[in-house]
Amino acid sequence: MLDTQGGLAADDIVTPWTPDRMLTRLGGDEDLARQLAALFLEECPQMLERVRQSVQQTDPDVVRRAAHAFKGSVANFVEDGPAASALELEAMGRDNRLSEAPAVLERLEREIAALLVDLRRFAEGA
Amino acid sequence: MRILIADDDPVLRYALREHLERWGYEVVESPDGESAWHALRETPAPPLAIMDWNMPGVDGPALCQEVRLTPALSGMYVILLTSNASKKDVITGLESGADDYIVKPFDWEELRARVRIGSRIVGLQQVLGARVDELQQALANVRKLSGLLPICAYCKRIRDDQDYWRQSPYFVTEHSDARFSHGILI
């Protein structure tokens, strides 16, 4: 399960998230960036749970769809890390090769836990 | 102008709404393909739509096809906004009936410019539609007066469909928008 406080192996992640790229894309609108971060913090557990369940169900098309949707939302904040892991899961679903999916999901969970820590700090104005 | 946003990502929908409202548009949101289709069947339908490709229910290209098969939505301008970036996807998306195709992650100023193009095309189509209506009305009036009219060579009365000889001014005013102002030639 995802530790919503971000404690789950968050130290594994080398690169912390910073809002720079996002702020550049949003024309420096910090208020909107914080609102989007807060919204993602709220929506992320359900979206990640759908990915988790899809991997457990081992239905390739369900994995592809859930991972694609999650990747899209994560990509609002970061292009690599968890977005890349979600993309990898999506490709595994599309190509019907789910044997490695649990391991990629585990990595995705760690990366998301770390991202949520940084996003929570940012959304709270730190 | 009202714009429909159809995307299952709540974060992007929020960002799109914020930007579009700042740019002066009114926004209707749908989190999936089916509710987007319901929003498009509203009267009047939003004339411009920004749709994701992958959505629960009906996907973006399928929605585009439905839009193009629906005469009431013939003037709708559709932008597909998707992370499906391959050339094959772009061609499939445009061939499904989308007017424009934007790949995520996108630049907001680029989106603004493209929405402005869509908005301009919608405006031009609305003007064109109104002009076509006017012309069709005018053509209908012209048709009423077209064909061979039997007219009396002496008194200039015109014989109508009921074989009644009518005075020319009455016949013309009944079959067109023309009106006569009577005067005397001196």
Largest sheet of chain A: none
Oligomeric assembly: heterodimer
Question: Which stretches of chain B are low in confidence, meaning pLDDT under 50 for 5 or more residues running?
Answer: none
Q: Quickly name the level 1 CATH class of the largest domain in chain B.
A: Alpha Beta
**How would you sum up the global shape of chain A?**
elongated
Helix content, binned percent of chain B: 40-55%
- CATH-assigned fold name of chain A: Four Helix Bundle (Hemerythrin (Met), subunit A)
Task: Give the strand line-up of the largest sheet of chain B.
Answer: 2-1-3-4-5
Secondary-structure element pattern of chain B, one letter each: EHEHEHEHEHEEH
**CATH architecture group name of chain A:** Up-down Bundle
Which CATH-level-2 architecture of the largest domain in chain B? 3-Layer(aba) Sandwich
* Count of alpha and pi helical runs of chain B: 6
- Overall mean pLDDT of chain B: 92
Task: Describe the overall structure.
The complex is a heterodimer of chains A (126) and B (186). Chain A is built from five helices and no strands. The two termini of chain A are 26 Å apart. Chain A has 126 residues and is an all-alpha fold. Chain A has helices spanning 20-25, 30-57, 60-74, 82-94, 101-123. Chain B is built from six helices and seven strands. The longest helix of chain B is centred in the last third of the chain and has 38 residues, at 108-145. Chain B has helices at 10-22, 33-40, 60-69, 87-95, 108-145, 168-175; strands at residues 2-6, 26-30, 48-51, 77-82, 100-103, 158-159, 165-166. In chain B, the strands form two sheets. Chain B has a five-stranded parallel sheet with strand order 2-1-3-4-5, sandwiched between helices. Chain B has a two-stranded antiparallel sheet with strand order 6-7. Chain B has two domains: 2-136, Rossmann fold (3-Layer(aba) Sandwich); 147-186, no CATH class. In chain B, a hairpin with a 5-residue loop joins β6 (158-159) and β7 (165-166). In chain B, 46% of the residues lie in helices and 15% in strands. The relative contact order of chain B is 0.10. With 186 residues, chain B is of the alpha/beta class. At the A-B interface, α2 and α3 of A face α1 of B.
